[in-house]
């Protein structure tokens, strides 16, 4: 790969990442005093063509949701009471 190829890849990656950040900020809004008006990025409308090719990552975590943690805790305490 030539230097021009590397530079083009870096620029495309920056444009793509900035668009995704901008799109996320314009589609999700905060409520209350934090919900100020955000100005749309000047290339936002022109970059919309990449949305069909972008997919959300499947993120896995080792942290359990709070509701599941409460359920497991209640099951554990119930089992401990039955054993005693």
Outline the secondary-structure elements.
Elements: H1 3-27, H2 66-83
Span between termini: 70 Å
Number of strands: 0
Overall geometry comes to elongated
Order of helices and strands: HH
Uncertain spans, ≥5 residues at pLDDT below 50?
Answer: none
Approximate helicity band:
40-55%
User: What value does the Rg take, in angstroms?
Assistant: 23 Å
Mean pLDDT across residues: 79
> What does the largest sheet look like?
none
User: In what range is the share of β-strand residues?
Assistant: under 5%
> How many helices does DSSP assign?
2
- Structural class by helix and strand composition: mainly alpha
Protein name: Transcription factor Adf-1
Organism: Elysia marginata
Domain MADF: 5-50
InterPro entries: MADF-dom
Description:
With 84 residues, the protein is mainly α. It has a domain at 1-30 and 37-55. The protein has helices spanning 3-27, 66-83. The mean pLDDT is 79. This is Transcription factor Adf-1. Residues 5-50 form the MADF domain. It comes from Elysia marginata.
Give the tags.
about 80 residues, mainly alpha, 2 helices, about 50% helix, elongated
Question: In summary, what is this structure?
Answer:
This protein is mostly helical and 84 residues long. It has helices at 3-27, 66-83. The radius of gyration is 23 Å and the shape is elongated.
């Amino acid at each position: 790969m030539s230097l021009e190829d590397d530079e083009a890849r870096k620029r495309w990656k920056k444009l793509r990442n900035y668009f995704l950040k901008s799109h996320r900020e314009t589609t999700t809004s905060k409520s209350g005093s934090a919900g100020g008006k955000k100005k749309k990025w000047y290339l936002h409308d022109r970059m919309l063509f990449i949305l069909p090719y972008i997919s959300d990552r499947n993120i896995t975590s080792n942290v359990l949701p709070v509701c599941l943690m409460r359920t497991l805790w209640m099951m554990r305490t119930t089992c401990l009471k039955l054993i005693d």
